[in-house]
Amino acid sequence: GTLRSRCCKVRCVAAPAQEVTTGVKRNENIGKLQAGYLFPEIGRRRRAHQEKNPDAKIISLGIGDTTEPVPKSIADAMQKAAAGLATLEGYSGYGAEQGRGEVRQAICDRFYSHVGRKANEIFVSDGSKCDIGRLQMMFGASTSVAVQDPSYPVYVDSSVIMGMTDGYDESSKGFGKLEYMVCRPENDFFPDLSNARRTDLIFFCNPNNPTGAAATRKQLEELVAFARKNGSIIIYDAAYAIYISDPERPQSIFEIPGAEECALETCSFSKYAGFTGVRLGWTVVPEQLRYSDGFPVINDFNRIMTTVFNGASVVAQAGGFACLQDEGFKEMQELVAFYKENAAILRTTFKELGFSVYGGEDAPYVWVGFPGKPSWDVFAEILERCNIVTTPGSGFGPAGEGFVRASAFGHREDILEAVERFKKEFGGR
Ligand code: PLP
């Protein structure tokens, strides 16, 4: 009422000048974050470009959201579960905070029992991003953190919010106290662990978003040995594991012997079955994973999940369960294969145009090099010349400079149109 009209009379900008404030001091850790989170900034530039060019048909290879419908048997299962809620027999209220037993078992049977994990170690959730936040809450502000550079921005930003880092340093383009493990073509996109500082936690995204690189077995053995030697815990993000083509590249960290004593793994149906809006994921915490005093990490994660989470939606869980049945699993693999074809189309095009191209074989992201050019300039040039939105590599960390990420999530016709535009604009470069 009055407060708002008063503020709007004064000045309607992001932080309106206002006479009345609360006595609450802002969390100074949130204040350390850099103003423009990557994707809102991309959205802003896209809108500006559209305003300047109202007729332009902009194609987005940017944010990495899924575009294709949820497969039939999976959507049907959710529809049935939702309709059931309107009946006495089909109604259910709160479920177990850890997820329905049959869903935990089905995830285990499909992905983990062959590597020694058990259903009780699997926590079903509303997604991996949310689990990352809860893991940060569990480990607390006094843990030290390493991330791959470049990587999914959530590891860095949630660490900053928790207070695990110092402020942003303009010269290094990074946050103080955070260990950035550089992953570039020169080191096969795998960190030089012989020169990495010890940290309590190591966020490791494999296949990596944004580079699309998937580590070999030998590389993951090296990572596990490094964590075990240092007494670190690997937070292994397998959100794109199903996209791995090469049978020599592990799909789970638990394929590496000894990982159960130094790693937990988070994963998601988002990019497996188009569940970015449905919301369903899981985290695996092995019983053998212990704190320095011998206390099981799984007990604390259970405590966190029962305290600040109340179980994933029963409708979403019905969908997840259907993903893991034979029919749904096949449909899910076909969906993944479709996006992988998109990735192959993009990869081939950039290669033919003479760019240095990485990723796209074991991941839905293609990482294209523009050596010596600032990523944001490349982003702007591609938007200007092709009406195509990409993601500037520097948004994923300082070592992403000189690259842009192209996402393979898109309708086929848009991917084909995009490659035609690239060929036209960059063909004779
Ligand atoms: N982890 C990585 C590496 C991702 O790229 C994403 C989504 O883009 C997520 C986690 C988030 O997954 P969810 O939708 O399950 O929260």
TrEMBL record:
CDD domains: AAT_like
HAMAP family for the chain: DapL_aminotrans_1
Cofactor: pyridoxal 5'-phosphate
Entry keyword annotation includes Transferase: yes
Keywords: Aminotransferase, Pyridoxal phosphate, Transferase
Aminotransferase class I/classII large domain span: 57-422
Protein name, as recorded: Aminotransferase class I/classII large domain-containing protein
Organism: Coccomyxa subellipsoidea
InterPro entries: Aminotransferase_I/II_large, DapL/ALD1, PyrdxlP-dep_Trfase, PyrdxlP-dep_Trfase_major, PyrdxlP-dep_Trfase_small
Pfam families xref list: Aminotran_1_2 (PF00155)
Gene3D superfamilies attached to this UniProt entry: Aspartate Aminotransferase, domain 1 (3.90.1150.10), Type I PLP-dependent aspartate aminotransferase-like (Major domain) (3.40.640.10)
